[in-house]
Amino acid sequence: MHWDRWLRRRQMSSRDHLIVHYSPLVKFIAGRVGAGLPSSVDPGDLISYGVFGLIDAIERFDPDQGVKFETFAGPRIRGSIYDGLRQLDWVPRTVRSRARSIEAALADFEHRNGRAPSDAELAESLDVGLDELERWLAEVASTTVGPLDRAVAAGLEPVAVDGDAEHTPTAALEADEVRAGLRSAIRSLPERERLVLGLYYDEGLTLAEIGGVIGLTESRVSQLHTRSVLSLRSRMRSAGLD
Questions:
Q1: Quick one: 113 and 140 in the same domain?
Q2: Pick from 90, 120, 140: which residue ends a domain?
């Protein structure tokens, strides 16, 4: 009823009702994005950012495209949260530097050997011990929020069609190119990392739930997720699709 009133008559009271109705979806996505972030990041801020994405989704949704609203809204809510986090600029400089070092080491090893390195090989490339590598990955895990994470989600989630005038043919072509490049890069990842990405972004499982599925600790799953995101980032940059 409220969807009908909003879509046909643009009644603001119906839009407000839809915002309240779908607010649990915002809280769920904000909770997933916020898992593992530093305590300095207020969960309430994440929800507030996500509400902007929800409002945008409600205002742009076209049921005639044959896509469920939750499918259409999910990437917009998540993207809005990522945008808000980037504006906070809360990542310490040392963590940014370590993320770049890991990314460069992954790219260099894969270029020379044609495959992803093991943890031991990655640690050797960085001239650090395995324990220190684990600490680096744990630190970086709470900062891998940005354009690539948004792109990973878009590359693995069902594609929602948006007919707005803002989405020009050129922009659509560029988005398709990025998505195709990302999917190709994902296919080249080690099987376990592909599985983690699929369960996290596509199936909506938490890191702890993924650990239960594949028999690893939550911290280890977090490390695999971080490695895969950094590896994808380096591959996309090498392909000129960053």
A1: yes
A2: 90
Residue 234 to residue 101: CA distance in whole angstroms:
11
Q: What is the greatest pairwise CA distance in the chain?
A: 64
Quick one: pLDDT band at residue 128, thresholds 50, 70, 90? very high
The domain boundary, picked from 38, 73, 90, lies at 90
Q: What is the pLDDT of residue 109?
A: 92
**Which residue's structure tokens are 């007919």?**
163
Tokens of 239: 């392909």
**Residues 134, 168: one domain?**
yes
The domain that holds 8 is classified in CATH as 1.10.1740.10
Work out the number of other CB atoms within 10 angstroms of the CB of residue 164: 9
Q: Is 147 exposed, middle or buried (0-12, 13-18, 19+ CB in 10 A)?
A: middle
- How does residue 158 score in pLDDT terms, banded at 50, 70 and 90? very low
Number of structural domains (the chain) is 2
